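TICKET: design request
STATUS: open
ATTACHED STRUCTURE:
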């Protein structure tokens, strides 16, 4: 990706400095824009792929970006005949739509949204983006360049954009609510442990601490059982979450046994 951006920047600078290149200079600038734009779609797809989500869809975005860039560059530099140019435009338009649609879906799927009603917003957005992409492809191949088709694309684009903006906001609000939810254990809880480096026995409070013997930095976190929606399951009566209604297995419930559920030391 860095090499692609560097190439695009270098080509753009060359075309600007040598302004007497004429048609060649225009082609160089367009080439720089094409390489830069599809490098961004590849980068977004690679970001999703690195997190092992929506792998098949992500590869569609990567391959589509490379092929779309190659097709547009082919038209820029070879001046195809009228007949071939129409076919190349349709192919390039389809590949471009796929190269944008795939990373868009992948990035939305990376959002961690547990609340059912809020997750529905993301699901609807995914379907709207898919419908918009499919409709654009149909317009390109069917040459439906009519007033109604333009209005349909506009409406679908606005709805998709709204869902794309709202979904990460909902994910952030949910994460913030879970972070600030009241806990059953106080932060003053202490944990008895042996230092993994010097093996000195000691008692440390939860949080970022240091070994009393060798000074090794230790972070202690106590995790309390929560439902997928973030509701604290301490002393839960019944087998359903009062917040979202999900079934809660016995192993996920924390009854008052006097012992913490889990302690994680790193």
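STATUS: resolved
RESOLUTION: sequence designed for all positions
ATTACHED SEQUENCE:
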């Amino acid at each position: 990706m860095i090499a692609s951006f560097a190439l695009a920047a270098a080509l753009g600078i060359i075309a600007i400095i040598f302004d007497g290149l004429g048609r060649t200079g225009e082609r160089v600038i367009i080439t720089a824009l094409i390489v830069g734009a599809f490098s961004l779609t590849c980068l977004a797809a690679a970001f999703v792929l690195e997190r092992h989500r929506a792998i098949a869809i992500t590869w569609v975005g990567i391959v589509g970006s490379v092929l779309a860039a190659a097709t547009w560059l082919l038209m820029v530099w070879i001046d195809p005949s009228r007949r071939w140019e129409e076919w190349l435009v349709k192919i390039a338009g389809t590949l471009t739509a796929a190269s944008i649609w795939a990373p868009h879906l992948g990035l939305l799927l990376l959002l961690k949204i547990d609340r059912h009603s809020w997750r529905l917003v993301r699901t609807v957005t995914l379907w709207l983006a898919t419908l918009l992409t499919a409709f654009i492809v149909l317009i390109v191949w069917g040459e439906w360049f009519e007033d109604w088709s333009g209005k349909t694309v506009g409406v679908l684009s606005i709805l998709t954009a709204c869902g794309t903006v709202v979904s990460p906001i909902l994910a952030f609000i949910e994460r913030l609510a879970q972070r600030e939810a009241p806990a059953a254990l106080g932060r003053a809880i202490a944990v008895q442990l042996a230092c993994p480096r010097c093996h000195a026995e000691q008692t440390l409070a939860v949080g970022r601490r240091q070994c009393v013997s060798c000074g090794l930095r230790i972070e202690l976190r106590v995790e309390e059982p929560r439902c997928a929606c973030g509701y604290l399951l301490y002393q839960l009566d019944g087998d359903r979450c009062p917040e979202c209604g999900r079934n809660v297995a016995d192993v996920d419930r924390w009854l008052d046994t006097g012992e913490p559920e889990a302690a994680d030391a790193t």
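CLOSING REMARK: Residues 111-180 form one domain. The CA atoms of residues 195 and 211 lie 7 Å apart.
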